[in-house]
Amino acid sequence: MGSWEDRGNYLIEVSQRCLKGHKTFDLCRSHLVQASQISKGTIYNHFTSEADLIVAVASADYRYWLIQAEQDTQQYSDPYLRFIFHHCQRLYRILSEQSFVIARVIPNESILIQASDYYRARFERVLKQYQQWNAQTLTEIGEVGGFNRGELLCDYLRGAMINSDDAQKHPDDAEMYYQFSFAMTQLMGHSHKRMPTINTFLQWLAGKPA
Fold first, then answer.
1. What is the pLDDT of residues 81-111, one digit of tens each?
2. How confident is the model at residue 61 (pLDDT cuts 50, 70, 90)?
3. Cα separation of 93 and 112, whole Å?
4. CA angle 136-115-131, nearest 5°?
5. How many CB atoms lie within 10 A of CB 66?
């Protein structure tokens, strides 16, 4: 395999595959030896602790969402729809691909403290960029005073992703996305907004690859 970075990215991809369908981050560095066909020494050289592995996977997930956010910025001129469909897409990916919900373990200060400077800095950088995208989008929608609505939304989204995964919700349930969007809209303080209808979500789901 090529560069050190390419090998690290490959190990992260293998880790994400190994975690599909799991409800806990029960993957250890030693598990990657057989799954990746890469030597234990090389794996431990890339991830000097179990915390490094967790934080590396988290960084990859947040980077994926950030790329998706940039695409959504191009696709949706309306910031409200941009925010709604971005987070619906996150939920869809978790349910359709059985992706591990990284919010179960990260952000977690105790894990970040244990991680090496390299992985911690990489995670904090992409986390900040993603938080800035969400904050900017909410600002464009229009801030409503009275509460820290960004924090309320963050907490809700984390819980909704975990709970939907635990309940094994069906990824093609338009009613679920409608209810998900209703909750986000209320937490934004924009109950007057014209929400996407169930038919809109049916059309959105129909456009997903088979």
1. 999 999 999 999 999 999 999 999 998 999 9
2. very high
3. 25
4. 5
5. 16
